[in-house]
Amino acid sequence: MLRSLWSSASGMIAQQTNLDVVANNLANVNTSGYKKERADFQDLLYQIDRQPGTPVDPASTIPTGVQVGLGTRVIGTPRFMSEGNLQVTDNPMDWAIAGDQGYFQVTMPDGTLAYTRAGSWQIDADGQIVTHDGLLLEPAIIIPQDAVEIMLSSDGVVSVKLAGQTEAQQVGQLELARFVNPAGLLAIGTNLFQQTDASGLPIVAQPGADGMSEVRQGVLEMSNVQVVEEMVGMIIAQRAYEANSKGVQTADDLLRIANGLKR
Fold first, then answer.
1. Is the CB of residue 18 less than 8 Å from the CB of residue 230?
2. Is 244 helix (H, G, I), strand (E, B) or coil?
């Protein structure tokens, strides 16, 4: 009976983590570039009271044995890097990656690179293209102060039209990075990821080249969270939590009956 207590408790803890993941997905349903997560589970050790295949006599063996599981745990929270819905904003500084191959690169304060799918860019006082937190786009692109129009081609060429001129001039070339295993990236918050040993080294190329997705201007990639799926997942997590709590209550009732035998 004590095994059932601990097994049910492990199920409640696992479902609590599952609900945390679902709640975080729903909280970021309107976060541009957000990629949803899922809780994956793994059964724990088994207490083997009778080994399957144990010989009974020279002519036969035990077919199944007796194996009692000791519960479950969350083994991982994989992130799905599929492309989110594209929303037309007509804002010239909203850029979207049209496909799931590629990440924008930004320079962190310590000089390292981080990666993001959120393409809502700003221009700082020096004309540099930055994130909302002031992190520089990599490679750096500077917009002249007298620019009256900013244009981004599908292959990442950034051009501007200056006041009093009719011809556009190129001011920078956007580069994207992709990874062999993007699900292995480390989420550090503020829409940013960092490379890990699991993700592999970044493969850098211009949009539309070497398998990289193209980019679009005036478009913003939204979260790939599906609200209906998350609500169903929340209901499943709630019911599983309730079922495991019933297991705890039942095991407790059995223990109380056993303790009441001597009266």
1. no
2. helix
Q: What is the pLDDT of residue 112?
A: 96
**Confidence at residue 263, expressed as pLDDT on a 0 to 100 scale:** 65
The 3-state DSSP class for residue 205 equals strand
Name beta bridge partners: 116.
Answer: 104
Threshold 0.85, pTM exceeds: yes
**pLDDT on residue 213:** 95
**CA torsion angle 225 229 230 232 (round to 10):** 180
- Residue 155, number of CB atoms within 10 A of its CB: 14
Residue 139 CB contacts under 8 Å (≥ 6 apart), including other chains: 105, 172, 173, 174, 175
pLDDT at 55: 83
Residues 6+ apart with CB under 8 A from 255: 1
Q: How far, in Å, CA of 161 to CA of 201, rounded?
A: 36
Looking at residue 20, its pLDDT comes to: 97
Give yes or no for a contact between 115 and 193, defined as CB atoms under 8 angstroms apart: yes
- Alpha-carbon torsion 193, 195, 197, 202, what sign? positive
Q: Whose CA is closest to 115, among 194, 178, 180?
A: 194
What are the per-10-residue average pLDDT scores of the chain (263 residues)? 87 96 96 95 90 82 87 94 93 95 96 96 95 95 93 96 89 96 94 96 95 95 96 96 94 87 74
CB < 8 Å & 24+ apart, contacts of 126-135:
129/93, 131/106, 131/190, 131/191, 133/190, 135/106, 135/107, 135/108, 135/109
Which residues on neighbouring strands pair with residue 41, listed in sequence order? 74
